Amino acid sequence: MLSLSTSLHEVRVSRAETSGAASTTATTTAATTTATTTTATTTACVLIFGFGGSGVEDLAPQAKWYQSQNCIVVSTSPLSWPTAVREKQDAALAEELTAALAAGSGKLVLHVCSNGGFVRGASFIGTWSQGQGPFSKLPRPADCIAAMVIECAPARPMDPVTQEVLGSPGKATSQSSGVQLESSAAAELSQKVLSAEVGMFQMIIRGCVGALCMKNSIDAAEVFEGGGSLAKCLETAAGFGVLGPPAWAHVGSAAQWDYGEFEEWDMGLEKPIPRLFLYSDRDTLIHKNKVEAYARYTERYNPRAQILRALIPKASHCKLWQKEPEKCGQAVSELLKLVGIGTGTGT
Questions:
Q1: Which of 249, 272, 291 is the last residue in one of the domains?
Q2: CA–CA dist 121, 28 (Å, integer)
Q3: CA distance 255 to 248
Q4: Cβ count near 203 (within 10 Å)
Q5: Are residues 323 and 257 in the same domain?
Q6: 234 in the same domain as 92
Q7: Is residue 343 part of a domain?
Q8: CA neighbours within 13 Å on the CB side: how many for 232?
Q9: At a CB cut-off of 8 Å and minimum separation 6, what does 135 contact?
Q10: Sign of CA dihedral 114, 252, 240, 179
Q11: Contacts of 59-63 spanning 24+ positions with Cβ under 8 A
Q12: Where are the alpha helices (DSSP H) in the chain?
């Protein structure tokens, strides 16, 4: 989960190139937006939220495949904080989505990577659906989002014994992203859940710190060898991943949705959104059992939605497209066929 991208809040827009067509690149200062323009006819817009610590270069394999389907691709990282920088990213996203939706069919495919991408996607839908800020002039997400690809995600806490997702569908979790526990054994179960989940978030945070070290030519080994106070900070931060951020982080707002709010919105849609869970049997960060548990959970709370699954063998976390691009393309192609998007080649 290391990124050498020049910016962790960059928004990159790319369009499919026609045979022999020359492309032009323009860069603006609005959250570092890079746009590649061509004359190709497009069918839809694809918005990709990467994994925590990713940059747009890490999402190039997915973007390249969608371009082969004549889609406009908007790629970015799952930035949630600092708030001021996220707002700049939102402004850039709104500007590019407005142009991309108008240039294409008006359909949007939302592709989220890892838990960071999933949660950022949910938050993004929350801001957009309430017409807040730069999204006030966009059509409603319910009228645009035609399909979803959920890659190596999500990491919604699950019962370590039953291997099923905890909580009730559509209910907001404690604080902003934690687990809602109401039984008499809540304290004991809460501790088990924390023990099972905190380790995963520690790995995520270490990956992000490692990425920043590489970007700034710092020896990550020396940083982590310090232990002591740094280890305690990482453990505390990992706990926030399960129980939600503290009040002093100023992350939450009425528009900042998480699992529960997204599920409530998802259940209420008149036309359910087809989706694909794309995951691996070698993912040591978000295990296949967790993804499969959420897929079953989705089928329970939204039985009208078409749920597809594609297991990509022997690929590590968020490296599916690098390991098996053809299999990933075939799986996503099947999803897009359901909503009339793409060339249907799967290549």
A1: 249
A2: 24
A3: 18
A4: 16
A5: yes
A6: no
A7: no
A8: 2
A9: 90, 94, 127, 128
A10: negative
A11: 59/113, 61/321, 61/322, 61/325, 62/111, 62/113, 62/151, 62/321, 62/328, 63/12, 63/14
A12: 60-68, 83-103, 114-129, 141-144, 186-215, 220-225, 229-243, 259-267, 288-301, 320-323, 325-338
Give the whole-angstrom CA distance, residue 32 versus residue 270: 36
Q: What secondary structure, in 3-state letters, does 256-306 show?
A: CCCHHHHHHHHHCCCCCCCEEEEEECCCCCCCHHHHHHHHHHHHHHCCCCC
* Structure tokens that stand for 213 in this block: 């070290």
Two structure tokens written together for 296: 């079953």
- Is the bond into 154 cis (omega within 30 degrees of 0)? yes
> Can you give the residue range of the structural domain that contains 302?
11-173+252-338
| Residues 130-188 pLDDT 10s | 888 888 889 999 999 999 999 999 988 888 778 898 777 755 443 333 444 444 445 55
Give 229-277 pLDDT, tens digit per residue: 777 777 777 777 666 666 665 555 545 677 889 999 999 999 999 999 9
Residue corresponding to tokens 């860069």 = 27
Chain segment 37-63, per-residue pLDDT in tens: 333 455 899 999 998 878 788 899 999
Rounded distance between C-alpha atoms, residue 148 and residue 227, angstroms: 40
Q: What whole-number distance in Å separates Cα of residue 347 and Cα of residue 344?
A: 8
CATH code assigned at 24: 3.40.50.1820
Q: What are the angstrom distances between the C-alpha of 52 and each of 55, 60, 66, 68, 269?
A: 9, 16, 21, 26, 28
Domain count, the chain: 2
Same domain, 167 and 192: no
- The tokens for 197 are 């989940």
Q: For the CA atoms of the chain, what is the radius of gyration?
A: 19
Looking at the fold, whether 295 and 156 belong to one and the same domain comes out as: yes
